[in-house]
């Protein structure tokens, strides 16, 4: 756009070209950088927590770190094309992605199913093995986002429609729980779908029912904590008995050993910790120190201060995702980001709650930090989906 302006020094009229309301492409580098920082910090913390076990078990102190970096490489190899491609293509193939994710769970029943720690939760394809529950999380996010965007906000406010949409989530969560006995993943999947529908504008009946169910579940959990006689009925109830009195389950490094040692690690770290690499509890005392219980080692080495810093990094990451969701070009993109946001948020909260014994042990890893190739790969792919949405945001200058 050409405009007539006056040169202040000479008073002469000049013609200048000025662009107004130019729409520029946007990319959330803040989210990318905080993710990279968490990943790099995770490598350091993982090496510190796992070096002793890796040296004794595999004669290589960096064994778990190398595996984690390898999983990162696979994840990034998929993440980059996901960022570059238009995320709206996922909407076109939503049904295939969702059905394929459920199909992978059914593969548990075939000879491809691999048993670990008394439960079949893995698919072994010779060259690679993975947990189908992680694929279901992505399938539920994409399918739910597509249907929510198709229905529109006004229709979503109707309670009946919300429950019809939520049945997609419940099917995935139920299949994962029934076929793999993976309660923690089922809870996370159910939580992802609920958060997406509520954020999309669910009516008061759906929101109220989910809220009452959540509060009722927490209250029921603490009531069961005072009923250890139920421990004989099911191993789920036994976990509650262990949660209440872990000291009663210490014999032979029993189920109470892990939570108690984790608390010892947290308590001994104090405010500023013993220093990176100086944990004593990681020397064979805390089971799964490099996986589900890594937060206890973080507290021991970096103290409460370091633990709070880690939490603040996740808070910043979640905040950036909220910004992307609020400015997404369409509702489908917004709901995808909300789904990933919900996944990471729920998993962080559950992991910290388990380590600090606020809830019974559910076997949930700390995103991007705990050791675990399958979880890490699919979390990285989810980050690619979020960054793909951010790349299509238009900003006005």
UniProtKB/TrEMBL annotation:
One of its GO terms (biological process) is cell division. InterPro entries: FtsW/RodA (IPR001182). It is found in: Membrane. The chain crosses the membrane at residues 26-49, 69-89, 96-113, 133-149, 161-179, 185-203, 210-227, 293-319, 331-356, 368-389. Signal peptide: none annotated. It catalyses: [GlcNAc-(1->4)-Mur2Ac(oyl-L-Ala-gamma-D-Glu-L-Lys-D-Ala-D-Ala)](n)-di-trans,octa-cis-undecaprenyl diphosphate + beta-D-GlcNAc-(1->4)-Mur2Ac(oyl-L-Ala-gamma-D-Glu-L-Lys-D-Ala-D-Ala)-di-trans,octa-cis-undecaprenyl diphosphate = [GlcNAc-(1->4)-Mur2Ac(oyl-L-Ala-gamma-D-Glu-L-Lys-D-Ala-D-Ala)](n+1)-di-trans,octa-cis-undecaprenyl diphosphate + di-trans,octa-cis-undecaprenyl diphosphate + H(+). Belongs to the SEDS family. FtsW subfamily. This is Probable peptidoglycan glycosyltransferase FtsW.
